[in-house]
């Protein structure tokens, strides 16, 4: 159930003193040569470790990942770039790798310099205690204000996919956010990992919303080392793709469930859109609507807000196509609005999750999204700190 | 300071019993023949009065506006269309107008049928008490949960522009939102009003955000009757455009200041963007960022969140262009981030307004936005009701 579940991976998590207390530096490494890929935040403001790691992956296959929590090393200028580079160099030196084979990730406060000497000392300590059962320690070392560690596992015919993530717990005034590291002993060719990682991320991490924010540091990294020894074939490739989807989906769901102040999970399903792109736009708009999210917090099957959000989903320079007379909405399976008319039904919503289904009645496009509700605690966590 | 400030306008506000208590139906009428225009919500889900009034204005110049509060007549199917049409017919009949010369606006709960008999009775009562000093009564009759009436006035060389608005006070479970009616005794030609109304609205109502939501009922209506008798010339046209801008701007600002749960007004100014369009995209993204808005509530000069929001402003299918090394940010005039580096300054923010200036350092594009903060009360107002 961790990044060391797959064969041939070792990990560790240590207390480097980057933040006040607890583990705050994780290291994951493949023992056999691995291949890999990463997907990064699309924010135009990129943290130093993102800039440095993207460059590394242009010329090398990743063999190890260093993650520090506490300081995001974002908006830190040239010094930040130098600090991220030194971190990768130190890890490479300890592990007998090239600098470019090391991915560095940071999460924590934006705009604060990385305490680089502590990080370098931490890297050396972490390298010294790498172990095949170090996954749990690594998973705990990447958290910031998450309520708990986030790990997931899926097994295929002779291979394993495991992963860890940290989520949207921005209780500090400037905190950069979501990281995930996924490892597998499935064999992939150099340059091939991205073709598996991208669809898995599109269907998982790209379909969740806590508050619609897009951080400077978000990253998902996949390492594949082939240590399972299984032979490739089309059926197994499909199975691997599924397993990767399961792990990414589980980690994404854990992130939403542990969203800041979250009390209710919104499972949004849009169908009948004129295109899949528009279905996604509508699902995302509903998932990020403050009015839908406060209604969910209040256990209110508020289809009026769902309609208003669906009607204003940014798409193609305008709004996604909807026609109110063709729209139907249900909450937890109870129809509340059917082809343009209220049904008069008012389902009681009391659970920790609510399923909101919207049929646009226009075509075949469908999409789903997971979101957390908008609560007092979200406001408290994000408002009550001053820099 | 009202819709009856300009010569030749009469108005009234009455208690029609559409909601539990208080005035809830307003009527505004021009005595001389007027011309006019309206701008409507761009939501794809349009309330019945919006659909009906848009059709009316295709074939006639507006002479009167009926506004009811309490029920939005949105998502009410064919019956909703019929009820909006009957409302316009009743007003036309009372005032000796064609049905198409009457604009009907509704604000209130979505998905509930308009109590049409009460509305028709209210229209007759309102028509009977129309008066040149009826502006205040009308302004109070269009409110829902606004803390107070919103009115504005500007005078030019021999003419007057006055207006009223209602804002984003969605404390009911499904409430549709922003309405404004602006009147002037400046002379405009038939078909010409929109060319003045559109830029004024673009710079005012389209530059505010309480929660980024776009309602099914939003409308701004302008009536111009020429009763001032002033002669047109280019200088006076410019003055009229300015006065219209002042009135729309003042009403827009009142709406944000009275936003749901609002305690701090964010005055966002973006400059140095590669284009004006991108400046607007960045300003809007910052104005709708939950993290920026909760930071404002906490009086936190949180430039990290401002940078992260600026870096993820939807534009042209991607994000607006920014380069962190060229960006500068100040809070209330104090630079906190200058061309890619933190300044180390931490201004104390304690007022009811905070000015956030962002210079992208790329070009000449500039834009401003007004926003409210995100507070406990916003969540309470929108969460604590169940249908």
Structural class of chain A: alpha+beta
- Rg estimate of chain A, integer Å: 22 Å
Low-confidence stretches of chain A: 170-174
What summary fits the major beta sheet of chain A? Answer: 7 strands, mixed
**What is the typical, i.e. mean, pLDDT of chain A?**
91
Most residues in contact, chain pair and counts:
A-B, 71 and 71 residues
Distance between the termini of chain A: 37 Å
Strand content range of chain A: 25-35%
The number of distinct helices of chain A, counting runs of at least 4 residues, comes to 10
Got a strand count of chain A? 19
Element-level helix/strand string of chain A: EEEHEHEHHEEEEHEEHEHHHEEEEEEEH
Strand order of the largest sheet of chain A: 10-19-12-18-15-16-17
**DSSP helix fraction of chain A:** 25-40%
From the spread of the alpha carbons, the general shape of chain A counts as globular
| Oligomeric form | homodimer
